[in-house]
Structure formats: C-alpha cells, structure tokens
Amino acid sequence: MYGRYVFAAVLLVVACKTNSGDEGAVRDDLQKADALRARLAEANNLTIPEVGAAPCPQIKPRQEPKDAAERKLQSQLASMQAAAGGELGHTVVVPSDKLAELLPATAIRVTRRSESVAAELGKSSLERSRDFAALQKDAAELAAESFWTYDVIAVVDQRQGPSEVRPEKGTFKSGAVVGRSYLYDYQAKAIVCAGRFEAQSGGSVDYASQNQPLPRNNAAYAAVVDLDAQTMKAAEEALRALPR
C-alpha cells in the first residue's frame, strides 16, 4: 500500500433603486431555497442497493489527458475541487461516522449563495457590491427545484491518511481509502447509481511554499487534499446505474 513518491514543488497563484416590497420577495425566495434544501437533503436514504452493471448516465467519462501538462492541470483542478469542500462540482466526501452531519454539494452551494444574497440585502443600495436585479435573479434561481439536479456522496468506510510527509526529501507515504458512492437524483427523488470504490494517493503532489511573512509549506495539507481528490474521482468512476 505504501511507497515513496516524489513531490513536484510548484507555487500556485489563483489569478468579482428598490423598495421594501421587492426586497421582501427576494427574502421569500431565500426562505423557499432553505426549505427546499432541508426537504431534499432529508430525502437521501443511503442504504446499500443492488448495484447494476450499466454506466451511470449522469456521470460523463473523464477524458484522458493528452500530455504531461494537461495531466498536471487536471490534477491541480481536482485538488482545488476537493479543497473547496462541496462548493465546486457535485461530489462530497464524508466519513461513515459523520453521515448525520452530511450536507450534499448542492445544499452547500445554496447555503453559501443564500448567505451572500442575504448579506447584500442587509446593506444600503449604495454599499452593495451587486445590483438588486442580480440579487433577485440569484434568489429566484435558488428557489427553483430545477436548481437541484444530482449529488454524489462518497462515504468513506476506511481511511488511512498520507503520512511521513518530508518536503526536504521530497517523499511521503501514500494514503488509502475504501468506501461506497451514491448518486442521488433530486428530480427522481431516489438514489439512481451506486458503487464501491478504493482510492490511494497520487504518484506526486504539487504544493505551495512561501518565505514571507513566515517560512511555510503546505505539503502535508496538499497530500491530504490529493487523497480527497483521488477519493472523489474513484467514487464517481465506481458509480453504476441501479436496476429500476
């Protein structure tokens, strides 16, 4: 399970007139979005169904990278998605003993956007960073059931994180995960795909380092995020359509 892997060191740089009646309508939409989030989240039923053999129609096969540069870019994007904790993409990773605390990815995005719209509504029209029409559009979108498409839940049953991260030597011990994945279709109000998966750390991990204001590198954090990214990828690829 374990091996020595060379870190590839890289510094990543990630280079945005109304009346009370109108605002009341936007707040109503935010309340509808919150109620919808709660109702649809409660509809999840993560029991183990019989898994079929057909591909899961909601998941598009990943395109193989054409070269090393594209492979590196895909790895970095996957790590960003994993680090975002459900704010990007459809997949969230949750330990089996934390299922009671699960928030699906769509619920996380609804919560973040609702909080943002509500915060802007609390400001005067001159202080707002977005105009009222944009806030109104956001709230209406969140309140629509069509905003809820599907979410993938990667349930981790066993996990051994990466360890012995040694940037000075460029090595670490690989981590590994075993779990189950489910795709919940909100329009069908059912789990329509499921699977079992295994994942392990990638062959190399990019990490950022800095000297100012204090010397620091995030190699250990990057290794953990990489394992989450590998978990998300394996969870999606394991999904198969359930017999209907």
Tally of strands: 11
What kind of sheet is the major sheet? 5 strands, mixed
List unreliable stretches of 5+ residues. 1-20
Give me the secondary-structure category: alpha+beta
Strand order of the largest sheet: 2-3-6-7-11
Record keyword descriptors for this entry.
244 residues, alpha+beta, five-stranded mixed β-sheet, two-stranded parallel sheet, 36% helix, globular
Helix-strand layout with pairing:
Elements: E1 8-9, H1 20-42, H2 68-83, E2 91-95, H3 105-121, H4 132-143, E3 150-160, E4 163-166, E5 171-173, E6 176-185, E7 190-200, E8 206-207, E9 209-210, E10 216-217, H5 219-237, E11 240-241
Helix pairs in contact: 1-3, 1-4, 2-5, 3-4
Report on this structure.
- This protein is of the alpha+beta class and 244 residues long.
- Helices cover 36% and strands 22% of the residues.
- The protein is built from 5 helices and 11 strands, in the order βααβααββββββββαβ.
- The chain has helices at residues 20-42, 68-83, 105-121, 132-143, 219-237, and strands at 8-9, 91-95, 150-160, 163-166, 171-173, 176-185, 190-200, 206-207, 209-210, 216-217, 240-241.
- The strands form 4 sheets. The chain has a 5-stranded mixed β-sheet with strand order 2-3-6-7-11. Strands 1-8 form a two-stranded parallel sheet. Strands 4-5 form a two-stranded antiparallel sheet.
- Strand 4 (163-166) and strand 5 (171-173) form a beta hairpin.
- Helix 1 packs antiparallel against helix 3.
- It is globular and about 60 Å long.
- The protein starts with 7 loop residues before the first strand and ends with a strand.
- The model is unreliable at 1-20 (pLDDT under 50).
